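Incident review: delayed structure delivery

Summary: a single-chain prediction request sat in the queue longer than the usual turnaround. Root cause was a stuck worker, restarted by the on-call engineer. No data loss occurred. The affected request and its eventual output are reproduced below so the record is complete for anyone auditing the incident later.

Affected input:
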Amino acid sequence: MVSQGLFKKIFLLLGDLCFFFISLWLTLLLRHGHNYSGDIFQTHLHLFSLLAIIWLIIFYAFNLYYLNYYQHLTIFLNTFLKAMAINGILTVIFFYLFSINANITPKTVIVIQILIFSVLFSLWRYLFQKIFNQNSLKQQVLLYGLHPHLNSIIEEIQHQQHLFYLVGCYVFTRDPNIRISAPIYSLDYNLEELIKKEKITTIVIAENLNSTDSEDLAKLLPYQVDIFSLPKFYETFFQKIPIQFLETSWFLENFSEGQKRLLATPKRILDISLSLFCSIPSLLILPLLALLIKITSPGPVFFKQIRSGQNNKPFLAIKFRTMTIDAEKNGPQWAQKNDPRVTTIGKYLRKLRLDEIPQLWNILKGEMSFVGPRPERPEFIEQIDKNIAFYGYRHLVKPGLTGWAQINYPYGSSLDDARIKLEYDLYYIKNRSFFLDLSIIIKTINTVLKGWG
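Output delivered after worker restart:
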């Protein structure tokens, strides 16, 4: 399952890169006509290769390589048009500010290439969907045994049916009379025949195995099927950690921080570098933002609040004030979507994440990181701890300005939202790496533009 998904993404990426340079070749051919030569293509190749990297990064930020993303054609087109609008702006900036090659006059070339590439890209994605959206390429999952949450797991799997990634789900159980929204095979059925008949590619062990079960599953190794425990499958497929399936022993096995020690230095370097880089343009708009806050509502410009940091150590988080000064006259409250306590200018600051700019100081001080679980208030942590198991493990790392939960889950303000976000936070803590941090930072561009996470 993992290898097929990775193969599809690489195939998709290589196709995009190939059609980018095909579109460049066609653009130069149209632009220069009979005067076109290989030298002209070579002259453009170096700068446009850098441009291709920028375009692919923006496509990645807009989830155009996320195989679980597309449910409808309109969503794909809307996302692609937004990504190309950003690419168009970045292309103009790139050439008019950084191009030093006098032989390249990019205005007409840019317009033609964007049009040609858009057509080729759309046709390529349509062809890709036709190739991979075939039943013969469908991932077939066999859930071996029963689990109290099995029905909800099946529903989540079935909900993941989408343009590029289809999943068939079957259950192999001792109780063939149980009501489950998937085809059921009893243990009387020959497991090897079932693998061949339904073309099973993945087996998920949903209950504790006895010696007979283990021996039966061991016979399937020559069939080259992927065999997962239920937590591992859930983590791999949904990219979050299923807290309802876990015990404390799981954290002892998977959250050992010794192996992450080498990550601390490059992560800190990234935090300081990005904070300084973002601080320079921020200084230009700080006076304007402060003025707007001051003239649109009474009260201070900055909002300071105690938050819980790494190892639950409290620190003073700083943000631009976006709520009225009496926002918590009735005690601490979770912020709501479309919260009436938010000021007029505060709505825009929140939507564009400009209220977070002062937290760059928290990052420079080492209290926060650019990437990590969002810092929560101690008052809410006490409430959440009583209702959600394992919540305290999210404090093993520094809180972040953005995070895996923020780019994967919309704004939430309930215990159920906190539980789902915890699953994403735990996934990040377990799998965090320098490149995952970079990935989250890039994808935050899309989250900010959507005003979603």
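Verification: The chain has a mean pLDDT of 83.
Action items: add queue-age alerting; document worker restart procedure.
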